[in-house]
Design goal:
This protein is α/β, with parallel strands linked by helices. The protein has helices spanning 7-16, 19-23, 27-33, 39-51, 55-68, 73-85, 89-102, 107-119, 123-128, 138-156, 159-171, 178-191, 202-206, 212-217, 219-234, 243-256, 267-276, 279-292, 308-311, 317-323, 337-343, 376-386, 404-412, 423-430; strands at residues 195-199, 261-264, 302-305, 328-332, 348-353, 394-398, 416-419. The chain has 24 helices and 7 strands. The mean pLDDT is 94.
């Protein structure tokens, strides 16, 4: 420990330098011996540990906080969140209930317990938490409306169902790891076959729509998730009211099952979303599996992790792709990406720069408002791609949710399209 072995001192240290956590040889012992000279300071240490993924050490100090401050609702709440991250939903609910007893009016505590119980399959117990109160605050009512629908959703579509579908894909040889993905794509390029690799994450899952009954049953939950993604993608949630954008999303999902390689949430992502007790992450990921489970598609269709675009960067895949000598097309919000690829030996004969998302917004001239890729840029770029055959050309597409349309169009025009995603941002900053 530091010379001043107090929670106050350690809290101040961590607020300036979180790397201290990684430098310690016996962090659990540190948490057993630090002097807890203040409740909030000690809680702050537990939060730093949780953010660093050191959940067991966080639980060590939280147990000591609860012993010293038995009426600390925050200590119970923080402990519950750490237990969720290590997969112990029973203990999560138990500690969350204790926080609720200490602060019955805290809607976040009730939400946490309801989500933990729902994900664990105890939807009846989760539902009872909402049957004994009447919130009057509009924001709290809105949150509990979404939680109520999440309870119903978990009952109808348990997270375990997605895990079972993923396991079936693996058992059937349909789920590919990095080397198999590399060969799968390069073989299509060598044979001159049209091919598309599209990645479906929680953003795509949030905009999936199955039927009007499903939309009505989970309306508040879906709307909340979609609003969050619109703000992330476009800087505004205006399109939540757009009939055209909703129609675009439905048309887009119609084509998802026709891609040759589909990136889906892997087991680690499903576990992570459970650990976060994320209504958005869980419902959106499960919806991806709902869409693909049992859907017909090309005989060559395979699945992989939706982060495979990044995993392939650790292999020779992108170098191999450039080495084929095929012309490349690029669609990205990173204006310098085409030059980066050319410097790496690629022949880039088509390059479109489109507006980005929350990590790379394009601002309007003389305006602080973000420029939206939909609909004008989408229409213009898609029309140009579709106007000519793409046979023999490889397209690297890093254009967010809207960009999934370009991937479909390239394949329809007999080209090869690869969902590059955030790897484009990395290349633009650091090169190939």
């Amino acid at each position: 420990m530091a010379p001043d072995n107090t929670a106050t001192h350690l809290d101040e240290l961590l607020s300036k330098d979180r790397s201290w956590i990684q430098s310690r040889q016996d962090l659990d012992r540190d948490m057993q011996t630090v002097e807890i000279d203040g409740e909030i300071q000690a809680l702050n240490i537990s939060i730093h540990l949780r953010h660093a993924g050191r959940h067991h050490e966080a639980l060590t100090i939280l147990e000591r906080i609860r012993a010293k401050y038995p009426l600390s609702d925050l200590a119970y709440y923080q402990a519950a969140m750490n237990y969720a991250m290590i997969g112990d939903l029973g203990r999560t609910a138990q500690l969350g209930r204790r926080a609720m007893q200490l602060q019955p009016s805290n809607v976040e505590y009730r939400s946490l317990v309801a989500r933990a119980l729902s994900i664990a399959g105890q939807t009846g117990a989760a539902r009872r938490l909402l049957l004994t109160s009447h919130e009057t605050d509009p924001d709290r009512r809105s949150l509990l409306e979404r939680i109520g629908q999440f309870i119903d959703y978990c009952e109808a579509y348990p997270l375990q169902g997605a895990r079972d579908t993923l396991e079936r894909f693996v058992d059937d040889g349909l789920y590919l790891e990095a080397e198999a993905v590399r060969q799968h794509i390069l073989q299509a390029v060598a044979q001159g076959r049209p091919f598309s690799f599209v990645r479906l994450g929680d953003g795509e899952g949030a905009w999936l729509s199955f039927n009007d009954y499903d939309e009505g049953r989970y309306a508040a939950m879906y709307r909340g998730h979609r609003v969050e993604f619109l703000r992330d993608w476009f800087g505004t949630d205006q399109l939540i009211h757009s009939e055209d954008f909703f129609r675009f999303s439905i048309d887009l999902q119609t084509g998802f099952s026709g891609h040759d390689l589909i990136g889906i949430p892997p087991k680690a992502r499903l576990d992570q979303e459970q650990g976060f007790l994320s209504t958005r992450g869980i419902a959106s990921s499960v919806n991806v599996y709902r869409l693909l489970d049992g859907r017909a598609g090309p005989a060559s269709k395979r699945f992989t992790s939706n982060s495979m675009n990044l995993t392939l960067h650790e292999t020779s895949f992108y170098r191999d792709l450039i080495a084929t000598g095929r012309p490349l097309g690029v669609i990205t919000s990173q204006a310098g990406l085409a030059d980066v690829l050319r410097a790496g030996g690629a022949t880039v004969d088509h390059a479109f720069v489109v507006p980005g998302d929350s990590r790379n917004f394009t601002r309007g001239e003389g305006s602080d408002e973000p420029v939206c890729q939909y609909p004008r840029f989408l229409s213009e770029v898609d029309a140009q791609i579709g106007a000519e055959s793409q046979e023999g050309r490889i397209w690297l597409v890093a254009a967010g949710y809207v960009g999934k349309r370009y991937i479909q169009t390239v394949k329809n025009r007999r080209g090869v399209a690869i969902d590059l995603g955030s790897l484009a941002d990395f290349w633009a900053r650091h090169g190939l």
